[in-house]
């Protein structure tokens, strides 16, 4: 009986994550890169939807379907510039996505999403990883709230 409940719970979480991904893609600004680049790296919207929306939410405001299962509430990613005197902290965001500077994402050896954003030692893999991170950073910069 407990296993059945647990399986149902995970099914609901996965359905919510899928829904969050769809909503993130639908709500994303047109300026953000949508598809894969010439190198085959998915755009920032797709990467965000797949790897970030389950915790940070489809609208990047920290209300993803996994929020209840986390020790710390995810931050509102649309306010990063406002919290940094109107300047988007791209270098810090890059480090966080890479697995540095924030404990909840894991350490540099294993961010919570595994090797997708972990910088590899061989040059081709390192370049693809950097492009993935750059795509999400650009997407997050494109959705920043501005002072009214």
**What's the total count of β strands?**
0
Total DSSP helices: 5
Total tally of structural domains:
1
- Biggest sheet: strands, sense, closure? none
Distance between the termini: 53 Å
- Overall mean confidence score, pLDDT: 76
Basic shape: globular
Q: Low-confidence runs (pLDDT<50, min 5 residues)?
A: 10-15, 17-34
The arrangement of helices and strands along the chain is HHHHH
Structural class: mainly alpha
> Percent range for helical residues?
40-55%
The rounded Rg comes to 16 Å
Give the DSSP E fraction (strand runs of 2 or more residues). Answer: under 5%
How would you characterize the overall build of this protein?
By secondary structure, the chain is an all-alpha fold. It has one domain. It is built from five helices and no strands. It has helices at 2-27, 44-51, 53-56, 90-98, 123-142. Helix 1 (2-27) packs antiparallel against helix 2, helix 2 (44-51) crosses helix 5 (123-142) and helix 4 (90-98) packs across helix 5 (123-142). The chain is globular, with a radius of gyration of 16 Å.
